Amino acid sequence: MTLPQDFENMMTDAIGKEEYRFLADAIGQQPPTSIRINREKVGETLISQEHSTLDVLKGAERVPWCDTGFYLPERPQFTFDPLLHAGCYYVQEASSMFLAHILKQYVTQPVTALDLCAAPGGKSTLALSILPKGSMLIANEAMRQRANILAENIIKWGNPNCIVTNNYAEDFHAFSDTFDLIICDAPCSGEGMFRKDPASIDEWSLANVATCWKRQRDIAKNIWHTLKEGGIFIYSTCTYNPHEDEETVRWIADNLGAELLSCHPLDEWLLTDTNTHFFPHKHKGEGFFISVLRKTSASEQTPAYSHKQRKNKQKSKSSSKSKFPSELQEKLANPDCFAFSENNGTYSAFPTAHAPLLQQAKDTLKVIHSGIELATTKGKNLQPSHSLALSNSLNRQAFPTAEVDYAQAIAYLRTEALQLPADTPTGYVLITYKGHPLGFAKNIGNRANNLYPSEWKIKSTHTRKTE
């Protein structure tokens, strides 16, 4: 693998000639594969390899800085594991799981948080699992297609304490002093992706590095007023170079008003205390940089209103629990925790404690998912939504269940019609695999209509051997 000469020169200046040689050798090697388990769906005892129903954990070893993270002995065909689609785990690069270690240190009370550059969803799903009960997360992505992927992964993860938005940093004009925590995994030159994505090598240039560090500082400047005084700002990239990493962090501290905090890594992790770098020749993972700052003063002024700011004119009609269809309220295990709404035949639930934040988001941002979509109107019926099937708040007793084997699970995920057992009740049925919900089907007797989202279906014709 030939790396750009400008990259070699820059990194030799940064880490030294000998260290660079080790880095370059590591970039030419195969990357490790790692996943993070969804504790809320899998449970504590099933995380251990001895008791787990997750075949993917066979032969796995733990990621040191994340207690639900595992390195796999080889990369399986994730597409053909129904439990991935059920949200039982997330495929995430191990170095970026270090966010778990940081959040556990600095977030001990419920917070309102923003993951600003969130797609495809690794850090958002991790945060949803780590943040204290009662927290609320806005997971945002500026690119529409990537925002849709983010929403899909949030829905699969099943935690309802999340709003997914599709906006730029400058669109958060109305959120001054709102967030206790901001996670900013900034767009970067992608040097840490060289061995996973060789095409990124051809796209790299010093000019692109300069474009990136300027954009990173603009993003931080445009979002800074939304962070409360004393709030935590976590900045990360998948680059090695100091221009996008240490220098940008120093600029944030000096120009926006922040103090640099320790990441408190364990000695055996071979990580620096602040401005923490992961290198593939030192750590089992990809290139990654992360830094933690605390905002030290109130914002002097709110940025001027942006012409790019988008307004969502569609507003949901809030409904009291007495007016909202009781049959839908009963589909949740904890309905008293939710506020219910209806918009153009779509029924939703959202944590009551954070309903004002959702309304503010709907008024000023482009919201593409929030809380739990419960059902949509189909003729005279209320058809349960996929978001409900995968939610951790689903009342499993509210629907008859049809357990399927591996071959049937793959057929379901390909949106093919199912033949359910003769004693399966007609109507809406929850399809499960190894006890984990995959989605809904409508059993009409001689067959079951598949309600799995067509845009999420498995399109590949290749498959692994059946179990």
Description:
The chain has 467 residues and is α+β, with helices and mostly antiparallel strands. It has 14 helices and 22 strands. The chain has helices at residues 5-15, 17-27, 39-42, 82-85, 98-106, 122-130, 144-157, 199-203, 206-223, 246-257, 326-329, 355-364, 386-390, 406-413; strands at residues 33-37, 61-62, 69-72, 89-91, 112-115, 136-140, 162-165, 179-185, 227-237, 258-261, 276-278, 288-295, 317-319, 338-343, 346-351, 367-370, 372-378, 381-384, 401-403, 427-433, 436-443, 448-450. Strands 5, 6, 7, 8, 9, 10, 11, 12 and 16 form a 9-stranded mixed sheet that branches.
Q: How many separate helices?
A: 14
Helix content: 25-40%
The description of the largest β-sheet is: 9 strands, mixed
Structure summary, number of beta strands: 22
Average pLDDT over all residues: 92
Shape: globular
Uncertain segments:
303-313
In terms of structural class, how would the helical and strand content be classed? Answer: alpha+beta
Q: From the alpha-carbon coordinates, what is the Rg to the nearest angstrom?
A: 23 Å
**Percent in strands:** 15-25%
How would you name the oligomeric state of the polypeptide chains in this document?
single chain
Distance between the termini: 38 Å
